[in-house]
Amino acid sequence: MPTFVIFDLEFTTWPGAMEQDWSAPGRLREIVQIGALRLDEEYSVVEEYETLVRPVVNPSLSPFFTDLTGIDQQAVDRDGLPPAQALSDFLAFCQGRSVLSYGNDMLVLGENIGWARARGEQIKHNALTPGFLNIRPWLNTVAPATAAINSGRLWQVLGLTRPAPGDEHSALFDCHSIAAALRHLSDEGATLPEALFL
After folding, report:
1. CB atoms inside a 10 Å sphere around CB 77
2. Where in the sequence is the domain holding 25, given as residue range(s)?
3. Is 125 helix (H, G, I), strand (E, B) or coil?
4. Per-residue pLDDT tens for 47-104?
5. Which residue among 60, 84, 107, 193 has the highest number of C-beta atoms inside a 10 angstrom radius?
6. How far is CA 72 from the centre of its chain?
7. CA 144, CA 146: separation in Å to the nearest integer?
């Protein structure tokens, strides 16, 4: 099986935003952090990708977001990339591989690509083959205890050792948590989705 990518996003949020599906005026799901792992056929990490992204519409992070993720304004202002550059770099990292997320992160990625293009920014490497796969429905089916659990807690609910330094709501840590869950379920005999083998 060729290598595949697991990715996770942290994006702007405020109290009640999730319940309102980010529908309040000006409250967009702008990406602030991208984390990704390239895994081999044994679910070992081949390469990591992580970057901060400077939001455009809401450049000032909410205290709620910072409390949730641990990402502060100073770090984003200092280390954050412009969205078009971060998105292009991430898509380059994914080229030619199946790309998995635990949930709808591919929709948030698409929103951010659309906004960047609407601002006249160029996004490189946008055609992904085989493409994206939301692994959450499959994972929740084979491990029902995970159904109400976010990606950063998968390792915990499955009784696994902490997969990496850090904690939930850090994009790269959440990727390690997803990878640990996939590795564990494969070891337990679960058959992974065929899309991984494309």
Report:
1. 13
2. 4-197
3. coil
4. 999 999 999 999 999 999 999 999 999 999 999 999 999 999 999 999 888 899 999 8
5. 84
6. 18
7. 5
